[in-house]
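seq as requested:
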Amino acid sequence: MFSRSLRYRNKTVKLPDGSMHAFLTAEEKGIDVRIAIDIIRLAHRGKYDVALLFSQDQDLSELCAEIRTIAKEQARRIKIDRATFDKCLDPRDYRPKASRP
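struct tokens:
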């Protein structure tokens, strides 16, 4: 198990009424790197048959390319059918109601 300390930063957002609101927010740093290292290490060792990673972090797209390379080297295939993919989608719209189209 690894842990990373949170960094606290001031963030300012514009509210729907046009006013500005400042608040302190916590951000994790280095977690995506730790996840990528674990996935690659375990893939090289053949420690899993299936791995699902759900993230909106574009940094992890490079991880996907590396996993494809590892799978090819190990004569393994990567495939998910459309029905399984569709079941993984979260239909909830998490945006505040005021900013929805």
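The mean pLDDT is 85.
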